[in-house]
Amino acid sequence: MAEPPHDRTTQRPDRSPTARLEMTGINVAFGGVTALDDVSLLVEPGQVHGLIGPNGAGKTTMFNVACGLVRPTSGRIVWRGDELRRLRPAQLSKLGIARTLQGVGLFPGMTVLENVMVGAHRHAKAGFFSALFAIPTADKDEERLRRRALDALAELEATEYAGRYPGSLPYPVQKRVALARALVADPELLLLDEPASGLSEDEMHELGELIRTVSSRMSVLLVEHHMDLVMRVCDRITVLDSGRLIAVGTPEEIRADPVVTEAYLGDDVDVDADAAQLASGTEGAHRG
Amino acid sequence: MEEFLSLTLGGVVNGSVYAAFALALVLIWRSTRIVNFAQGSMAAATTFIAVAVIDSGQSYWVGLIVALLAGLVMGALIERVIIRPVEGGPELNAVIVTLGLFIAIQGAVALFAGVNQRAFVPPFSNIGYEVREGFTLLSLSPNTIWTVAAVVVTMLLLIALFRFTRLGLAMRASAFGQEVARLLGVRVGRMLTLGWALAAAVGALAGLLIAGDVSFISPTFMDQLIVFGFVAAVLGGLDSPIGAVVGGLLLGLALNYVRGYLDDSLLGMASLVILVIVLLVRPGGLFSTTPARRA
């Protein structure tokens, strides 16, 4: 892996240095088909790390390995200095990892506020039985969760929707709520799976700002198709093609890398636009 | 008019018990997508446990508490040990398992308690109040008031649990999206166990209330109620607790009018007709939020 010429990580000493996600030598095979071939990925604390590649490159598989949905045939995942063996999705929140889903995945029969409160679940102090019998500490807990959830909604400017049901809200608002639900857990690592899909240009811009803002509190691993968003917000980018790692570097390096351009041009039709974007550079990427 | 009033009140009383029973089915359906056909014999079992406690010299209330606790424990055990392996598998497997449980529990109750009917004394008098000189409202007695009150209080407690506690929140999240809830750190397995436990406790209450209403019990005394409870739950959409309550009340009223104006023997058929009509006209139930349902 090439060292970047400059790295924003150094400007953020407030993160604990152990909040680093290292995935090394990840192999995944689905019934004889190799989905990932010896792929490594390093998300430094406080970094926004992009994971890109043409369709079928293995981005989603890599992402699913990171959150325990897919178990790699071989390879190591090290988080906060400990190796995660047999990682399961249910352990994520306890490990300080939150993820959003490709859709929105909100609970349909619960209000926006309640949805976000579920995200704050792991911060409740009261145990199972005191919660069951509504013992006073559980009450205070309840109030604390509600406040946390409202704070998270406020950060995403979605407070006004607190009492509404997800089904009645426009898609972009639902996505913001889903993001609030992930942020309310105050994770050290946020896994974002195509957060910009279905968003307008303006909304995507806001999302970019938001990702930069939260990256002062947490590392972010971002899987995304929209190249200008990736180029604008990421500190480092990993590029996959056909299950193999083909490039790692800063957005500038990636943009200038002929191997990456070729991978995008050589693939199927609907990524042509991405490739064109990639080749022409990005608007609004004023990086110092 | 007097007859109508009497039948309507009686319908509300019966309906509230159907509602409680339907609610128990809905609690389980929501969390595990399983229709628990064993609900009736589980309730019969807890009723017999209460009777054993009462026979040993304790009061009805001690028997009630023991029955509710027994329901909680039985529900949790059954979910954890018997249902867990078939959860998430083909729907038919779970159906067969709960049918098997239904027969097995009924058999076990008969083994311990015998197959004969025996009397059950309700906690309050079953004699109707004389509302006016010469007119006794049969369906308004201390015991029917207790029955309705017990169901209403149970409903309110459940609403409070689901609306206002973190635990209820986690249970609802598990019901709406197990995978997402798991990602968010909810202990989904525990929530399912708790759902079954609560459902069995509500079923246990319904069992004791029915026993007090009909004044006799046998291992099969809940068999008809599972049919009514199921129809009420389908009427409400299987997914909605409020729907189960409204469905239960509607069914109670409808069946009581059939009983009063037509004939007692038509009850089973009437409930079947209602079930078929609901499934034909509004397969999602009166309150279902989902557009289509496979059951």
Describe this structure in words.
The complex is a heterodimer of chains A (288) and B (295). Chain A has 288 residues and is α/β, with parallel strands linked by helices. In chain A, 34% of the residues lie in helices and 20% in strands. Chain A has a six-stranded mixed beta sheet, sandwiched between helices. Chain B has a single domain (2-281), classed as Orthogonal Bundle (ABC transporter involved in vitamin B12 uptake, BtuC). Chain B has eleven helices and four strands, in the order ααααβββααααβααα. Chain B has helices at 2-32, 39-55, 60-83, 91-113, 142-164, 166-176, 178-183, 188-214, 223-236, 241-262, 267-281; strands at residues 118-119, 129-132, 135-137, 216-217. The model of chain B is unreliable at 290-295 (pLDDT under 50). At the A-B interface, α2, α3 and α4 of A face α6, α7 and α8 of B.
Structural descriptors:
heterodimer, A: 288 residues, alpha/beta, six-stranded mixed beta sheet, four-stranded antiparallel beta sheet, 34% helix, disordered N terminus, disordered C terminus, B: 295 residues, mainly alpha, ABC transporter involved in vitamin B12 uptake, BtuC, two-stranded antiparallel sheet, 4 strands, globular
Number of domains of chain B: 1
Biggest interface, residues from each chain = A-B, 32 and 25 residues
Output the CATH class name of chain B: Mainly Alpha
Instruction: Specify the biggest β-sheet of chain A.
Output: 6 strands, mixed
Using only C-alpha atoms, the radius of gyration of chain B works out to 19 Å
- Give the amount of beta strand of chain A, in percent: 15-25%
Provide the helix percentage of chain B.
over 70%
Q: Looking at the structure, what is the overall shape of chain A?
A: globular
Distance between the termini of chain A: 23 Å
Helix and strand element order of chain B: HHHHEEEHHHHEHHH
